[in-house]
Structure formats: structure tokens, C-alpha cells
Design goal:
- The chain is of the alpha/beta class and 405 residues long.
- It has a single domain (3-404), classed as Luciferase-like domain (TIM Barrel).
- Helices cover 42% and strands 16% of the residues.
- It is built from 14 helices and 16 strands.
- Strands 1-4-5-6-9-10-11-16 form an 8-stranded parallel beta barrel, surrounded by 5 helices. It has a 4-stranded mixed sheet with strand order 12-15-14-13, sandwiched between helices.
- A hairpin with a 2-residue loop joins strand 13 and strand 14 (312-313).
- Helix 12 (331-343) packs across helix 13.
- The protein is globular.
- It catalyses: an alkanesulfonate + FMNH2 + O2 = an aldehyde + FMN + sulfite + H2O + 2 H(+).
């Protein structure tokens, strides 16, 4: 990899020619509002979707130094807006990425929700535009539009929503929405509310190019993702815009490679072949998501082809829709894989792991140092001598602490 190649992606100020190490990425985590557990495809050691557990995960990742969390949306999840409102009062720094749902709600009502949650969280709100990829689930919500029409509706939704949160009075008559004198009486906190979005189809890429700040993809191999990013970047440039890029995947990080791969195999050790066949059939027959099709094509439901790129493992996608790949390995190896994604333009990583509480600790304690991320809270350094710190008290111990800092 040449210096000019790295500079093209990271820029002279972020990746000076004297230092080829990219800046630390933005690291987010996931709130499992549909439930959690230690084994996929099994009720063994399953954790139900309870707010108390969501709060445990959120307060842990806030303390550990993750920048934000994604709250999923859909029929099988607790509502992301209400959950985020509860978690915002229990956290200090954490940002909350919640879903805007065109068709499920109106842009004016969504703008009011946006303003309320942005104020409640003191400016820690992020928005994720989700048009949906499961026609059956959308029909249950009263949405009966075809694939490309949903993206067209989403574009119209965002234009109205964005004008409202900017403080404008909106009069609009379009294909999907009519608004007369729409306005917000209570303003948002943030001057600009960042809008995230993921859509792998041509229609989705056009929405990204025109309307969003950060384009998300599920965890495809770097070469495939590079192609998608190049397309999105070119379409945005044609409109005089630039995009940031993020990736949504799982992490299985352990102190050694062998431990990590053992943990990956353990995660799917109770998944049956029948469960895999049934899940893959549902994904193909019930969903019209191009991104989901790209995920499934990586492994085609086969256990013998799950490492789809070095350290990129597709075992989660055998039974889980959406994000189906995980980076598996020791901290240094996973950090190297993350830098490969950074080299093609990704600056934000939205991670998860099973179970989410324990895996958040592993990522923060093992992987963050390898990425140059210091998520520690500043506080009083004690001089405790116990089974974790077997040093001594007094001036020598103080000197050791000062040297470490």
C-alpha cells in the first residue's frame, strides 16, 4: 500500500506522510432490543429483551468509551425512540442512533420526536433512515409500496423532515406527503442532525448521494465494500456533496486467534442444518433487500465457506438477517482488518457481539488499545495492592503510576 493511496483516503491532515497509521475509528455498539444470548439458534442462556438489561449494556459502553449505540427497529424490537429516551437519562456521553421510518410515521411527527429526544439527550441524538426490506413486516405496519417506491418516499420524507428541524415553516405537496404550515415550536439542540442510511440498491445509493451524511453497509469483504463506496462517493460528488462511510458488523475478539475462532464456532454450535435452511429460505423469499441478498451470497448457507475474507466470518448470517458477519481474531489482527476498511474510506464501525454486555467489555479492553482508543474515564488513581495490582505503596508506587500516565 503506497503513501499516495493512503493519503487519498485519509487526507494529509489525518494521515500525515510521516505517519501511515490512520486515526482511531469511531466505535459504536448495539443495544439488543430484540433479546440477547450466548448461542445462536438456541434458548440456552438466552436473555429476554428487558429494559433493565438494555440499561446495563448502555451504561457499560458509555463508561467504556464507545461513542454511541445503534438501536434497531422492526416488529421484533422494542421501540427505539422510547428505549433511547429511557437510556439517555442513564448515560452521560453516549449518542443514540434511532430510526426514522418513512411510511410508518409522518415527517412532521418524526421532526417533533427528533426535537424532543435531541433536547432530552442534550444533543446526543443521531438518526438512521430505514425504509425497510421485509414487505410482509411493512404490510403489517400499513406500508404497501414496492422496493424503489419506498426509497422515493424516503427521499421526500427527508426533505420535509430536514427543513422542519432547520426551523423552517414547511408547505409541501408531493407524491407521498402533503403538509400545510408545518413547523416545530420547540427547536433541536444540534445545529445539524447527522443522518445515517444504508441501502445497497441503485435507488438506495441515489438517496444516500442526495440526502444523508453517513452511508452504512453491512460487513462485506473490503474489496466488495470498496466498490460500493466508490459508487456512492461518485454519485454524491455528481450532486456536489461528500459522504462519510460506516460499517455494521459483529466482533469476536480474544487474546489469541485460536480462542477467537473457538468462540465463533461455539456461538453457532447449537444451530441445526434445518434452522439454517429455514432462515435462508425466509431471507430469499420474504425480503426484497439488495443488502440482505449480498449478505446471503457471501456464504449461501454453507458451514464450509464461512470465512468470506481474512478474519471476516459469516456464521452469524446463517440464521440472523441483516448484519451477518463478524471480525474474528486477536486484537492486533482485528485492528489490522479495521485499518483495511479505513483504507477504503470507512471511519465508523457499529459493532455488536453475543452476549452484548460481555463482548462490549472484550472489545473495549482488548481491541481499543490496539486501535489507539483511550476510553477510560479520568479519575483518582488508587494505590491498592491486591490480586490485580501486586506492587507496593509509597513513593515508588507513585512514581510508577506517573510513568504509566
Amino acid at each position: 500500500m503506497t503513501i499516495s493511496f493512503l493519503t487519498a483516503f485519509w487526507g494529509e491532515t489525518e494521515c500525515p506522510m510521516s505517519n501511515l497509521t490512520p486515526p482511531p475509528p469511531h466505535m459504536f455498539w448495539f443495544i439488543p432490543t430484540h433479546g440477547d444470548g450466548s448461542y445462536l439458534g438456541s434458548e440456552t442462556r438466552q436473555r429476554p429483551p428487558e429494559f433493565g438489561y438494555f440499561r446495563e449494556v448502555a451504561t457499560a459502553v458509555d463508561r467504556l468509551g464507545f461513542e454511541g449505540v445503534l438501536l434497531p427497529t422492526g416488529q421484533s424490537c422494542e421501540d427505539s425512540w422510547i428505549t433511547a429516551a429511557g437510556l439517555a437519562t442513564a448515560t452521560e456521553r453516549l449518542r443514540f442512533l434511532v430510526a426514522l421510518r418513512p411510511g410508518v410515521t409522518t415527517p412532521v411527527f418524526a421532526a417533533r420526536q427528533t426535537a424532543a429526544l435531541d433536547r432530552l439527550s442534550d444533543g446526543r441524538l443521531l438518526l438512521n433512515l430505514v425504509v425497510g426490506g421485509h414487505p410482509g413486516e411493512l404490510a403489517a405496519d400499513g406500508v404497501f409500496l414496492g422496493h424503489d417506491e419506498r426509497y422515493a418516499q424516503g427521499a421526500e420524507f427527508v426533505a420535509i423532515w430536514r427543513a422542519l428541524v432547520r426551523g423552517e415553516t414547511v408547505n409541501h405537496e408531493g407524491r407521498y406527503y402533503r403538509v400545510e404550515n408545518g413547523r416545530l415550536d420547540f427547536p433541536v439542540v444540534q445545529e445539524h442532525l447527522p443522518l445515517y442510511f444504508g441501502g445497497s440498491s441503485d435507488a438506495g445509493l441515489d438517496v444516500a448521494a442526495e440526502h444523508v451524511d453517513l452511508y452504512l453497509s453491512w460487513g462485506e469483504p473490503p474489496a466488495l465494500l470498496a466498490e460500493k463506496i466508490a459508487t456512492a462517493r461518485a454519485r454524491a460528488a455528481a450532486r456536489g456533496r461528500t459522504l462519510r462511510f460506516g460499517i455494521r458488523l459483529h466482533f469476536i475478539v480474544r487474546e489469541t486467534e485460536s480462542e477467537a475462532w473457538t468462540a465463533a464456532e461455539r456461538l453457532i454450535s447449537q444451530v441445526s442444518d434445518a434452522q439454517i435452511a429455514n432462515a435462508q429460505k425466509r431471507f430469499k423469499e420474504e425480503m426484497d433487500s439488495v443488502g440482505q441478498a449480498r449478505m446471503a451470497a457471501l456464504h449461501d448457507g454453507r458451514r464450509d465457506r464461512l470465512e468470506v475474507a481474512p478474519n471476516l466470518w459469516a456464521g452469524v448470517g446463517l440464521v440472523r438477517r441483516g448484519a451477518g458477519t463478524a471480525l474474528v481474531g486477536d486484537p492486533q489482527t482485528i485492528a489490522a482488518r479495521i485499518r483495511e476498511y479505513q483504507a477504503v474510506g470507512v471511519d465508523t464501525f457499529i459493532g455488536s457481539g453475543y452476549p452484548h454486555l460481555e463482548e462490549a467489555y472484550r472489545v473495549a479492553e482488548l481491541l481499543f488499545p490496539a486501535l489507539g482508543i483511550d476510553g477510560r474515564r479520568r479519575g483518582v488513581r488508587t494505590q491498592i495492592v491486591n490480586e490485580f495490582a501486586v506492587g507496593s505503596h509509597g513513593p515508588a508506587a507513585n512514581a510508577t503510576i506517573r510513568a504509566a500516565e
